[in-house]
């Protein structure tokens, strides 16, 4: 079967012409990946267990609740969820890049009216599943906006992105009323969920204030942060508050914004108290890649994302008072617009298939190493990917599931969910280390590499075959050698994401890409969307604590070896 597949792949590759004769696409030599379970690097921090999305009202809709349940079930730690628009004025109807809760309005005399029903409905959905909110304080209620009209946008894929930034993106017309709104929200949350629960949340101000999400100045954002932090701490002194959620720290303008904010919270005059500095319990910023179409195929740019990550780490590390604070990458993705579908943005064609899953495996592994190299405390990286309710099947949004059917990328997170204990050594004598991916992206050889962990009763090795260019090439021969296993009989489970395994998208295409699948087709798609074993589980007995697994790993494929004893 393998020989047949290889011949077909070679035949297909030959049709791509001269491009495939370059080193970037040439046949890989056998790759050896050496894992030493005895060499501990650090605890296996579950930085992947963070998700977010623009449309908060999807949270409690049918497919939203289904997906949140699945995510909560494959994680051994509480999953944190971040959503926009939790204070936006409106009727609670969901739409692309829009959401509302009507948490704050004013009566005829201009007195505040608080209504927490929809916010509670969102947070209840998380709490019921053992999840926790990254409670985003924003955006501006219409009654508080310094430019309230026009307020709501109506956006569809293909529309100009800048058209969405209307009245909800402006500073408040009254900072004291804003602060009281924040105070009442935190106070209400403590009354509803309990002090201990709310202490475990992360409260953060706004989203990407260095671009059009904030129609004020840097100083006005800093002023808003001072009022917000003061209100949060007055309501619950032990609550955690952070910011600034800028995007693209490697951009000159973004770095200026981020440093001005960090200078202020460490040494500036507080707008509320008049004292030096402002409370900050964690630091947030965003990092995105930049795919494009090259010679008719999608070419990713992981290096762009990693450079943003690294620049943010460098900035934080330059402040001794802040270096050890937790960092949450508030959005960490292959590109910037989750709701920009493949049909109008062809560069997003990576999203339905295995390119998204292999990119996710390879990029998350490098996040650990970048943070380690800078000596900073990376707590989590939010994948800005959820689901889009009642949209066309596999339309090419950046989502984890489509119409309740899991896409291949979700299975990478299922793999990460089985990694626990300590992160251990994977020898870095392969084609790429984290520095080379950061500096060059993956444009020459394939990035065939792995990440591994060990706990008291299990070990796990995730292996990927990633390349920025999504073109067909022969499978790679990979030999994974693992040492440091206990001297006893154990079970080996080999899971795989590729075109034939853990892949609902390929099954959907094989069905003829039905626009309205039947109930039986949906059942088959749901099954295909689950993480699949490549082979039957097998008993093994490591010799001298060592074993070797050989495999053929397709381009953009991910394998997961799970040893349990």
UniProtKB/TrEMBL annotation:
Question: What are the EC numbers?
Answer: 3.2.1.37
Q: Does Protein biosynthesis show up as a keyword for this record? A: no
Q: Which UniProt keywords apply?
A: Glycosidase, Hydrolase, Signal
All copies of the Glycosyl hydrolases family 39 N-terminal catalytic domain together span: 33-528
Q: Which branch of life, at top level?
A: Bacteria
Instruction: Return one GO MF term.
Output: xylan 1,4-beta-xylosidase activity
**What does UniProt give as the signal peptide span?**
1-26
Kindly give the Pfam families that the UniProt entry links to this protein: Glyco_hydro_39
Q: Which InterPro entries match?
A: GH, GH39_cat, Glyco_hydro_39, Glycosyl_Hydrolase_39
Q: Which SUPFAM superfamilies match?
A: (Trans)glycosidases, Glycosyl hydrolase domain
Supply the enzyme class, top level: hydrolase
Q: Which family does it belong to?
A: Belongs to the glycosyl hydrolase 39 family.
What's the protein name? Answer: Xylan 1,4-beta-xylosidase
């Amino acid at each position: 079967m393998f020989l047949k597949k290889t011949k077909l792949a070679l035949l297909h590759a030959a049709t791509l012409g001269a491009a495939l004769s370059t080193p970037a696409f040439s046949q890989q030599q056998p790759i050896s990946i050496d894992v030493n379970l005895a060499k501990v690097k650090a605890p296996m921090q579950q930085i992947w267990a963070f998700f977010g999305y623009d449309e908060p009202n999807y949270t409690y809709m049918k497919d939203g609740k289904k997906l949140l349940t699945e995510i909560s079930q494959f994680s051994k730690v509480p999953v944190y969820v971040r959503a926009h628009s939790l204070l936006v004025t409106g009727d609670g109807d969901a739409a692309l890049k829009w959401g509302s809760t009507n948490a704050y309005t004013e009566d005829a005399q201009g007195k505040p009216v608080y209504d927490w029903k929809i916010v509670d409905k969102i947070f209840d959905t998380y709490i019921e599943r053992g999840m926790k909110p990254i409670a985003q304080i924003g955006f501006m209620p219409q009654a508080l906006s310094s430019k309230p009209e026009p307020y709501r946008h109506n956006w569809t894929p293909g529309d100009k992105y800048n058209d969405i930034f209307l009245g909800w993106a402006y500073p408040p017309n009254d900072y004291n009323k804003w602060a009281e709104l924040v105070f009442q929200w935190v106070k209400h949350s403590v009354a509803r969920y309990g002090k201990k629960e709310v202490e475990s949340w992360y409260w953060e101000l706004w989203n990407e204030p260095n671009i059009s999400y904030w129609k004020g100045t840097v100083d006005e954002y800093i002023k808003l942060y001072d009022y917000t932090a003061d209100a949060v701490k007055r309501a619950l002194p032990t609550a955690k508050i952070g910011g600034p959620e800028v995007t693209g720290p490697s951009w000159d303008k973004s770095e200026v914004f981020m440093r001005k904010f960090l200078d202020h919270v460490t040494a500036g005059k507080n707008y509320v108290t008049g004292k030096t500095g402002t409370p900050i319990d964690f630091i947030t910023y965003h990092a995105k890649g930049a795919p494009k179409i090259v010679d008719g195929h999608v070419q990713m740019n992981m290096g762009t994302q990693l450079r943003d990550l690294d620049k943010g780490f460098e900035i934080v590390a330059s402040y001794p008072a802040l270096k050890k604070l937790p960092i949450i990458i508030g959005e960490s993705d292959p590109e910037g617009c989750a709701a920009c579908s493949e049909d109008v943005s062809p560069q997003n064609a990576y999203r339905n298939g295995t390119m998204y899953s292999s990119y996710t495996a390879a990029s998350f592994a490098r996040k650990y190493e970048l943070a380690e190299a800078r000596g900073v405390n990376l707590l989590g990286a939010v994948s800005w990917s959820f689901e889009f309710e009642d949209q066309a099947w596999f339309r090419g949004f950046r989502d984890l599931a489509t119409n309740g059917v899991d896409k291949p990328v979700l299975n990478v997170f299922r793999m990460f969910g089985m990694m626990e204990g300590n992160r251990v050594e994977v020898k870095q004598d392969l084609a790429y280390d984290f520095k080379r991916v950061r500096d060059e992206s993956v444009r020459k050889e394939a990035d065939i590499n792995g990440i591994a962990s060990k706990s008291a009763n299990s070990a796990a090795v995730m292996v990927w075959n990633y390349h920025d260019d999504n073109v067909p090439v022969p499978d790679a021969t990979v030999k994974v050698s693992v040492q440091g296993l206990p001297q006893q009989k154990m079970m080996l489970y080999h899971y795989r994401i590729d075109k034939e395994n853990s892949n609902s998208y390929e099954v959907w295409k094989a069905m003829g890409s039905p626009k309205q699948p039947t109930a039986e087709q949906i059942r088959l798609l749901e099954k295909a969307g689950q993480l699949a074993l490549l082979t039957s589980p097998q008993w093994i007995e490591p010799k001298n604590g060592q074993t070797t697994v050989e495999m053929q790993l397709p381009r953009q494929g991910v394998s997961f070896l799970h040893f349990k004893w």
